[in-house]
Amino acid sequence: MAHQTFGQALGELILQKRRALGLTQTQLAEDAYNTSSKTRRISELESGLVANPHLKTIDPIILALKIAPAEIEECAKRATKQPDSDLDRAYREARNLIDAIARQFEHSKPNASLADLDDFLRGKAAEWSALRNRIASIDVPEAALSKLKDDANIALAEGQFDKVDELLAHAEEHYQNDRTLAEIRKHAAIRVTRGDNCLLGGRPDTALAHYRSAAEFFKPFDEKEMAKLLEDSAHRIYEVAKRSLNPAFHLAIELLKPLLDLDHVKSSARLLAGANYRLGLTMRNYYLSNPQNVGKNTLDKAIFYSRQAANYSGNEDESFDVGSMKVNLANLLLDRAKLENGSETADVTEAISLLQNLRINLRNDKKAQELRSYTCNSLGAALLTSRNIDAPIDTNEALDQALGAFRETLEISELYSDAENWGAAKANIGGVLAEMASTKNLESHKANFLRIRAISEFNSAIETTSVIAYPLHAAALHELLARVLTDHAVAIDNEIGEVYLVRAIQSYEISGSIFNREQHPHRWAQIQERIGSIFAHHARMPNVTSSKEDIAKAITYLEEAAAVFDKIGAKEEAANSREKINLLRN
């Protein structure tokens, strides 16, 4: 078949072999894995949904069907895309590591698809390959100083002492750069690699110590190199943290803080603004990853650093960077406004002013159009927030302006193929539509259609957000989707509503598997309470034959929620859950 992937070719072979043996997909799953729960994987393979599966992830199926190596080679020859070389090499040279990671993934995500497993293993194989390459490239050649020494000898012979001193000064500088710094770079590279290894191995605090000490090697000789190493290490940790279930943003923060004390950074307004911006941005992500435990103090510090950055005016070539600093400050002000600690009106008003002015300036700046989409997204969020406080703007006007800003974001994001910001705008529009559906005295058919549109927007946002790459963001989107699915099911209150309830439970379960009991107890308990409420509602629906089972499940979920609420001191929420339990039992 033309343009056939390796996965499609292999899927056809598996289907032929299974049918030749007279096995169902369930029987093959039981033969290969000793459990029928893996039937979905066989279905995915036979349907060609996994474009490039690695053979080691499906070894049991190959063995059960007695597929010969020659048959697999034939599939590879037919494919337009060959198996992943990084993953293949990782399986050959680091089999125990990859096997352990695969087992850990399947244990933590038993419902994940084979495509999810393959994507996850490819990412880990790439990390392993990068770490191996760092280790291989630690040693570098040194530069020679012979010409400077020869020139100094000639100048000395001629009595040109000033010339000798000048040449020796150059020799000293070259010696430091080409020998002293070269040796320090080698030493620092080893120490950084140790840090990378500790980070990959789950020892973040030890990794931080290694990164810090590697940077300190340069302090007596070259602050510029020290600053670069701190920035690079912090950026690497930041990018990993954005895609992690256990984000270590605090490590990046600790690496960025020393930059503000370096003369090399303090002597440049641009470098100082950049350091303040990165510190504020990282602190914001640290706060958002776990606001219950991180607290307002971190948010206030992030605003302080971001305000320092936003005061930098820059030049025409820096409009994107300067604008990004203002957007980050505005986002932080909105985060603090949501805490309702007394500064919300001033925070939201300042954020709206910052973003509106920036939006106007960016419309005429061809070099920074992509930033305009982020500006509009943040502006829309600020306008929505303004409706909940005593801000000098009409509520309906704010809603219309917010939708206009989000739609402008979509337009620009589509122009630049910016899937991430496009998805964020879709989620924001979904939230607005869901809120509009709850307007009092709105005709039911109009409210229903608004909720259906909201569901569509949230689903679009979820499609652009991988659970594997951005787990926390994906979990939050599933939680938002589950709420509007539940609202719609309750509103239509018929047999079709049951389908929406099931979908809501599925999205809540995905969210709860990421916002888990150990790391996000409050969020997890809220999700359990909502699932319990869904079962309770279903039990009361007409013509339902599973009322007793639904009530039992509802009580189980509510009891688990109440127990966690008690443990974390959320007394009001615990009492609310127990009140629902009592009503169900009576």
UniProtKB/TrEMBL annotation:
It comes from Bosea psychrotolerans. Gene3D superfamilies: lambda repressor-like DNA-binding domains (1.10.260.40), Tetratricopeptide repeat domain (1.25.40.10). This is HTH cro/C1-type domain-containing protein. Signal peptide: none annotated. It comes from the Bacteria. Residues 14-72 form the HTH cro/C1-type domain. GO terms for molecular function: DNA binding.
